[in-house]
Amino acid sequence: MKRIRLPKGYSFRIKQSDYSNAQNISIFFKGHEVGRLRLSGYSKEYRTHSWLLEEHQCKGLGALMYARAIKWALDNNFKISSSGCTSKEAARVWSGRTIRKYFKIIRYTVNGNALWRAYKK
To answer: Which run of H or E residues covers position 57?
Structure first.
C-alpha cells in the first residue's frame, strides 16, 4: 500500500480514546491540532466521524486524514465505513479520487442513507 504523506508542516498522531473503544487520528499544523477523525468501534468495525478547521479545508487534508485512518483500521484487521449520516464534505471525500488512490471504496444505500465502505486494493 502506498505511503500516505501530508504536505510540509503537517503531521498525524494516532491515539486510543481514554473513554471508549475509539481511535482518534489527529492532524497537526506546526504543533497545533487542526482536525481530527474519530473511529468509533462497533465489534470489529469502525465508523468515521471528523472535523477540520475551515482554514485548512479544500487542501486535500481531509482526504489524507481519512486515508490514514482507513489504513490504520485495515492494517489492524477492522472493517471501516462512513457513519451513515455523512455530511456533504465527508461524502465528497469518500467519493473523491484522493482516497481511491489508496483503497477500493464501495457505496451502499442503507435505510435510504449513503454508506461508504473501504477495502484494501
So the answer is: none
